[in-house]
C-alpha cells in the first residue's frame, strides 16, 4: 500500500514538474536566471521519476534516488544563491559568504555522491554501509536547513514592494525544504526513513 502511494505521489510530482518545465521552456527569454530555473525544474523531473520508478519496481537500494536528490538539492540551492547575488553587490563580505556556501555545497554533494558508489577499499572505513546511511541523512538535513535559510534571505532582502512577485517561489521552495527537514530530522532520530513520510513527499513537493 505504501509503495502504491509513493508511486502515485512521485508520479504526480514528475508530471507537474514536467508541465512546469515545458511552460518555462516556451516562455524562456534566454536570461541566465531562466536557464538556471529550467535546469532546477528539469532535475526535479528526473528526481521525481526516480522516486516513482523505485516505488514501482521496489528496488532494494535507494542509490539512484539518493543521487538524484543530492543533485536536485544542489541545483535549487545554486539557483537561490544566484538570486541572492545582486543583493550582495558592494558588500564584499556577503559575496565571499555566498561563494563559500556554494563551494561547501558542491564539496558536500560530491562527497555524498562518491560514497554512494560501491568502492571496495572504502568498505572497511564505512563499516559495511552504516556510516553511508548516517552521513547521507546528515547531508540531506544540512541541504534542507541551508535551503530554508536561503529562502529566508531571499525574502528578507527583496524590497517590500517586490515581495509579492516572489511569493510562489518562496512558499514553494520553503515548503519543499521544510518537509525535507521534517523527513530527515525524523530519520536521524529513529535511524531509518519513515515510509509514510517518504511516500507522501511527492504530493507535498
State the gist of this model.
This protein is mainly α and 205 residues long.
Task: Outline the secondary-structure elements.
Blueprint: H1 2-27, H2 32-57, H3 63-84, H4 92-116, H5 130-157, H6 167-190, H7 195-204
Can you characterise this structure?
There is one protein chain. This protein has 205 residues and is mainly alpha-helical. Helices cover 79% and strands 0% of the residues. The chain contains 7 helices and no strands. The chain has helices at residues 2-27, 32-57, 63-84, 92-116, 130-157, 167-190, 195-204. α4 (92-116) packs antiparallel against α5 (130-157) and α5 runs antiparallel to α6 (167-190). The longest helix is centred in the last third of the chain and has 28 residues, at 130-157. The chain starts with a helix and ends with a helix. Residues 119-123 have low confidence and may be disordered.
Q: What gross morphology would you assign?
A: globular
**Topology as H/E string?**
HHHHHHH
Biggest sheet character? none
Strand count: 0
Strand content: under 5%
Number of alpha- plus pi-helical segments: 7
Amino acid at each position: 500500500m505504501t509503495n502504491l502511494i509513493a508511486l502515485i505521489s512521485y508520479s504526480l510530482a514528475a508530471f507537474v514538474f514536467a508541465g512546469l518545465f515545458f511552460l518555462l521552456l516556451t516562455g524562456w527569454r534566454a536570461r541566465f536566471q531562466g536557464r538556471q530555473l529550467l535546469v532546477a525544474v528539469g532535475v526535479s523531473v528526473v528526481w521525481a521519476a526516480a522516486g516513482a520508478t523505485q516505488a514501482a519496481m521496489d528496488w532494494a537500494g535507494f542509490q539512484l534516488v539518493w543521487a538524484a536528490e543530492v543533485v536536485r538539492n544542489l541545483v535549487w540551492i545554486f539557483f537561490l544563491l544566484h538570486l541572492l547575488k545582486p543583493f550582495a553587490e558592494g558588500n564584499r563580505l556577503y559575496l565571499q559568504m555566498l561563494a563559500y556556501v556554494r563551494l561547501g555545497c558542491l564539496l558536500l554533494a560530491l562527497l555524498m555522491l562518491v560514497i554512494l558508489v560501491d568502492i571496495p577499499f572504502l568498505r572497511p572505513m564505512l563499516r559495511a554501509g552504516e556510516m553511508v546511511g548516517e552521513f547521507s541523512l546528515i547531508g540531506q538535513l544540512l541541504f534542507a536547513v541551508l535551503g530554508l535559510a536561503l529562502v529566508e534571505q531571499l525574502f528578507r532582502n527583496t524590497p517590500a514592494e517586490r515581495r509579492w512577485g516572489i511569493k510562489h517561489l518562496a512558499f514553494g521552495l520553503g515548503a519543499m525544504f521544510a518537509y525535507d527537514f521534517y523527513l530527515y530530522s525524523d530519520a536521524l532520530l529513529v535511524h531509518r526513513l519513515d515510509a509514510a513520510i517518504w511516500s507522501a513527499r511527492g504530493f507535498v513537493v
